[in-house]
Specification:
The complex is a heterodimer of chains A (101) and B (389). Chain A has 101 residues and is of the alpha+beta class. Chain A is 37% helix and 16% strand. Chain B is an alpha/beta fold and 389 residues long. The chains are: A alpha+beta (101), B alpha/beta (389). At the A-B interface, β3 of A face α1 and β5 of B.
Chain lengths: 101, 389
């Protein structure tokens, strides 16, 4: 499977979900900076741009829209690098069956 | 000390199957001692506060608990990711929908083979067709689906066929698990351990399947430790990641830990989960590096494999604090080498066996195999509580 194309709508795969924030008092389920995605046999802690990308992968935004939003948010970065990095990031998660598109 | 990440909830030891390679303890917990619904829910809440992320429901057969739906809902409400590891026997609609609605995130079903006769024979029950039907039902729900395939000497030669079979069931994940030699599997080891040639072929088959299925099905596969250079990081290290709670509430660092003499295990009926994780002598016994003998103590691999498996060290050397004999550097590695040499030379069973000759094989090896005794009777979930069956 190649990287997503502009019209695909990335989303978390079946059985993969965000851990609710501060779900349990005193629990270590993420902080304001960090959120966790839970999936079979594992979890990833997300912060910064990785988190910003995946929070947009809700199945309604297209890959093209997600890229455009992040390109306008990070104006100092090279737009084609942003596109390339996000494509590879999502492709890797798709291989792990955490993201579908 | 890290916090635990996963809770293995062995909610019952009752099971309808009698797998020859079952690695559960030979002495099972009795039904009358099983923890109640509210005791389990309290455990999930305690576990979540400790930092646990995943709850794995297993057994025995977890479906034998009529309150499974409530247990899943309780774990989910506590903030845990829920995984049901099941044979599928006794699971159909509407019970499947009930567990999904209760918050089930992931279901895991193991297949014994792609061929019905062989699969049923290994399981000691007519379970194969049932599991195929259940796989179809599962795909109508939005949960993650893993198919677990147990691989050993008798089926490894048609691994490619088994992978194609699983592909049709359309899971997100496929786990190719070699038999682990504990419990019944250790007693049956000579009939289960593959030859080197079988293993080499299997590694190629898996690599080709990974490539072909990339993006559709993720394959997680591990080389059996008898053939590996370094031992497996059993349980991710003793007392580092996992807590297992048995049906009667005993808390163990792994499901086989009770074989180790001299360890005592606390019960959640007497102490908090936090106390057990932090203070119990059983969780501390092989945590960290203090307990390690040479060559582990000065080995570069010690933070990767943690010295391997304590239970395997005990079962093979008589000393739970020995380096896992699966390690090529272990003083007792000759024990594993001898088993591997046997596996590669025994003419009685080293010929590859096709499914067509399985009946014949069954007769041939009857004296070789120990069928798992099923002390506890299987009772599917009661209709009163779950409205199923």
């Amino acid at each position: 499977m190649p990287v997503p194309d502009d019209s695909s709508r990335p989303r978390l795969a079946a059985g993969c979900r965000w851990a609710a924030e501060n779900e349990v008092a005193g629990g270590k389920k993420g902080t304001e900076e960090t959120r966790i995605i839970l999936f079979p046999e594992g979890a990833i802690k997300l912060q910064g741009t990785g988190r910003q990308v995946l929070e947009r992968c809700n199945g309604s935004r297209t890959f093209g829209e997600i890229i455009a939003e992040l390109q306008s948010q990070f104006k100092d970065s090279n737009p084609s690098k942003i596109r390339g990095d996000i494509g590879i990031f999502l492709e890797q998660l798709q291989k792990k069956r955490i993201v579908d598109y | 000390m890290t916090n635990p990440l996963a809770l293995i909830a062995e909610i019952t030891h009752r099971c309808p199957l009698h797998c020859v390679y079952c690695s559960n303890p030979l002495e099972l917990a009795a039904v009358r001692d099983e923890l109640s619904t509210s005791e389990w829910i309290d455990i999930f809440q305690q576990g979540s506060k400790l930092g646990i992320l995943h709850a794995h429901f297993t057994g025995g057969e977890p479906l034998a608990r009529p309150d499974l739906t409530e247990l899943i809902a309780g774990a989910r409400a506590a903030g845990l990711y829920t995984n049901l590891i099941t044979s599928g026997i006794g699971l159909a609609e509407p019970r499947l929908k009930q567990v999904v609605d209760a918050g089930l995130d992931h279901i895991q079903i193991s297949f014994q083979d792609s061929r019905e006769d062989a699969a049923n024979w290994i399981a000691g029950a007519k379970s194969h067709a049932y599991k195929i039907e259940l796989s179809r039902l599962i795909r109508r729900h939005k949960i993650a689906f893993t198919v677990n395939l147990v691989v050993h000497r008798q089926n490894i030669d048609h691994l490619d066929e088994m992978i194609s079979f699983i592909e049709q069931l359309a899971p997100e994940r496929m786990e190719i698990a070699h038999t682990q030699y504990y419990g019944w599997a250790l007693k049956n080891r000579s009939a289960l351990l593959p030859t080197r040639a079988q293993l080499d072929k299997a590694v190629e088959v898996v690599a080709a399947a990974e490539k072909r299925l990339a993006g559709r099905i993720r394959i997680d596969s591990v080389v059996p430790d008898y053939y590996a250079r370094f031992p497996k990081a059993c349980m991710g290290g003793w007392g580092r990641r996992l807590m297992l709670i048995n049906p009667a509430g005993k808390v163990l660092p792994c499901h086989a830990a009770e074989v180790i003499p001299g360890l005592t295990f606390e019960n959640v009926r007497d102490c908090s989960l936090e106390y057990i994780w932090q203070e119990s002598s059983s969780f501390q016994r092989f945590r960290g590096e203090e307990w390690m003998p040479e060559p582990c103590r000065s080995c570069d691999q010690r933070s990767q494999d943690f010295g391997g498996c304590r239970c395997q060290a005990l079962l093979l050397t008589g000393n739970a604090a020995a380096t896992d004999p699966a390690c090529s550097l272990a003083p007792a590695h000759h024990i594993v080498e001898a088993a591997v040499a046997d596996a590669n030379s025994d003419p009685a069973i080293s010929e590859s066996v096709s499914a067509a000759s399985f009946v014949q094989l069954q007769q041939l090896t009857q004296s070789l195999w120990s069928y798992r005794k099923n002390r506890n009777k299987f009772e599917p979930g009661s209709t009163a509580k779950t409205g199923t069956q």
